[in-house]
Amino acid sequence: MRGVVIMKLQRTFILTLVCLFILGLGIVSATEPEKIYPSPVRDVMATTGEIIAVDGDKVTVKGDGNYPVATVIVTDKTLLIDGKDGDLKGDRALKKGRKVTAYYSSKMTRSYPPQAEGFAIVFGKNNEKQGKYMHVEKVTPSENGESVRLLNSNRDIIVTVSKDVYEDYQNIKEGDRIMAWYSIMTMSLPGQTNATKVIVLP
């Protein structure tokens, strides 16, 4: 009987500790709001694969991504970019069979394949040597002033850009379109990485 009482007391003690721990986490969260990032959203969509059709200003890409097949509408604002060095390309680069990553608006038609305005088409295989296109939603300078942290508009990646990587890093602003090259990324959300190269796009 005495043993049963002791076990009940132990369970009560453990439950009390668990409750205190949970309350403690709540207090920490409430006192550090600056470390809480908005939930990820779908702003810039992407499909990586190859061009299967070019019809006037419409380029259809088949592969992997937000949509396995997507038709990107190329406008005067759509950038055609070499994924290796970041150089801009002309319309002649849009050929069937080319390996690309198409970045496009989340405002899509309900047709098949869905159609959307293209932000950028990046040429080349999607690997570690390939630059990634993104929109900058938030810029946070570091405490020592030698770098900035860029949160993309999808809110799922934070890229740290140092002065050694991009000389005019302090001039990067919210709303900019950039190409960023990086390799290792944390498993956190948002994922965090250090840029090895950055280009601010026109």
From TrEMBL:
Name this polypeptide is given: DUF3221 domain-containing protein
Organism classification: Bacteria, Bacillati, Bacillota, Negativicutes, Acidaminococcales
